[in-house]
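Question (not urgent): is this output format expected?
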Amino acid sequence: MNVTIMKGRKQKIFEPSKTCPRKDRTASEGYVEGHTFMWITENNLTTNDYRLGSGLLEHIMSPSNLNAAYKQVKSNKGAGGVDKMEVEFLKDYLVTNNDVLIKSILRGKYLPNPVRRVCIPKENGKQRQLGIPTVVDRVIQQSIAQKLTSIYEPQFSDSSYGFRPKRSAHGALRKCQDYITQGYIYAVDIDLERFFDTVNHSKLIEVLSRTIKDGRVVSLIHKYLNAGVMNEDCYEETPEGVPQGGPLSPLLGNILLNELDLELEKRGHKFVRYADDMVILCKSRRSAERTMKSIVSYIEKKLFLKVSRDKSQVTIVRSIKFLGYSFYRYKGEGRLRIHPKSVERMKARIKQLTSRSNGWGNERRKEALGYFIKGWVQYFKLADMRELLKRTDAWFRRRLRMVIWKQWKQIKTKMANLIKLGINKYKAYEWANTRKGDWHTAKSYILSRTITDERLRKTGYVFLLDYYDAVRVVK
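Got this back:
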């Protein structure tokens, strides 16, 4: 990877051409209210299919498509890119630079800005690298993605669920359940190593060119792939990979991995894919092992992607982790449960939200816990987990009692509050002066009788089992 050190240069906010090392970059982005185009024929009718001809770029740059892209980017919000422009300044900027932007794209002169490197922690302790495009480039990418989605959706496999309209992780999990019920109890769990960072540009462009006949669109996408990365003051070239963080990246990933989907369908395999997370289901271990060997070879030799040998495995379905869930069979039926690692992450998050070191007040803590618990249960509501949530709630309430006990701090405050909540003066004095630790005291019958489950509910705390019973899906 080539790295160029950016020396001290004064950057002017909102002028992308002055914030990166690539020259001749078009700095404008168009707000499209004034731009129109029209197909003209002798009888004012057109039969031109832009998906098969050379007019796709004009449709991408159409007023309705660009306005829809602008609205989507605005609603998504998000941080600014290398030019430091935030979403709230986007509209005025686009209105001012409308004509320059559209002309530069249609003439093939537009050069995207590098993405801004951002790292976020992964559950395994490593970091995931994101590439944040400028808000201007996000509008252009979104406009491309909107048109390409309508073109590629009919081509995509029914076994693909990630980043597609009207499809979700729950649909992928239900499909796995159906296959397991049919007797496909062995899994080929393939892990693509750093998929988005290792996409082969030449292969992706080849696949795109089979469907997209407007070379200007393919060229514009290629420019985004080669735009590079700004890592603080360092510019890094991107000879491979699709930066995660832009609107176009998930679609490009699906377009490339659709080649794998079609190959699996051709071979008659039962599989489910969600983005780069995939599981192939077989009826015997021998069949699964043969499948693993041949599919790994196809992925590496035909798609030029890397398979992690350490993380890929052939095993029974109850041993895999797919989209945070695991599987089991009960009376011949495929069922879902939560993977232990997902439980660990959930408890770690609750522990973080109930920590007193964050300086939150009770209202903010209740709000944050409510949002997290509702979102978590909504995602995992397909799982059989009543007993798990019952145990987790007991632990959760103990943590809440510990937080409240700590908040009372002084002995006289603890004694006064215990008396107010129904404890006699002798016992209140005894427990207010206890030398036992806060965590130990939180499990005592004194706090269980005073800070009851019902009182916690009335003050606004949401519990996992309560919400699960309200929203769970019964199959």
